[in-house]
Amino acid sequence: MDDPKEGERDAMEAAPLPFRAAVDALRAARLRPQIEIDPTKPPQRLAPFTYALEATVVDGDEDLADGRLVLLHDPAGHDAWQGSFRLVTLVRAELEAEMATDPLLPEVCWSWLTGALQARGLSYGEPSGTVTRAGSHYFGGLADRPANSQIEIRASWTPREGLGGVPDTASHLASWCDLLAQIAGLPPAAPGDASIVSLPQRRGPQSR
Questions:
Q1: Does residue 166 contact residue 22 with C-beta atoms inside 8 Å?
Q2: Are 35 and 80 in contact (CB under 8 A)?
Q3: What InterPro entries does this protein's entry cite (predicted)?
Q4: Bridge-partner residues for 158, per DSSP?
Q5: In terms of Cα–Cα distance, which of 25, 155, 41 is closest to 87?
């Protein structure tokens, strides 16, 4: 059986130079210590070249939030993206039940994403996404579990390309980690993030 890691190396060596440079920048990025991040298997049908990361915000033994970030690249460009790169994300965390009923919650959560990008001065386009809130109540053999509410952000945006057609993926990753920290209820890591609105979060284990 072929070594999957060897297959990944072969695929990366065959990828265009801009994509390889963008991935190298993701791998070299230095992130805040509360965020544990690892590469994961990317989706195969969204673009000719893909790379994915998954992350968890950890406080001691508790998982405060988790998410996935996928880098897409189509050398021929993509009309809907208005570029040749696209970043796609899923971020989720648990909330205090009363916060889940706040009518402004979706707008605030969306502002966490756009605010994180703007706080680092990043240029991007064609943002789109959804904010979903859901509540769970337990019955029968699970009745001893407290009810919980979860917020989920699904989004995508086009990072503007710089020299050599390569976007600043390291800074976009840092902004994404700012979003993860924001939804987890952690204090901002940089002064520029202080303008983003925060809501109190439930700091408990995430449903996997």
A1: yes
A2: no
A3: DUF3000 (IPR021555)
A4: 125
A5: 155
Across the range 133-159, mean pLDDT stands at 83
User: What is the predicted pLDDT for the residue at 24?
Assistant: 95
133: burial class by Cβ within 10 Å (0-12, 13-18, 19+)? middle
Three-state secondary structure call for residue 9? helix
The domain spans of the chain are 4-183
How far is C-alpha 164 from the geometric centre of its chain's CA atoms? 25
pLDDT tens for 175-203 read 999 999 988 888 766 544 433 333 443 33
Q: Supply the pLDDT for residue 150.
A: 85
The answer to whether 169 and 26 have CB atoms below 8 angstroms apart is: yes
State the Cα torsion 24-27-32-38 to the nearest 10°: 150
- Check if the beta carbon of residue 49 is closer than 8 Å to that of residue 19: yes
**Whole-angstrom Cα Rg for the chain:** 18
pLDDT for 8 equals: 60
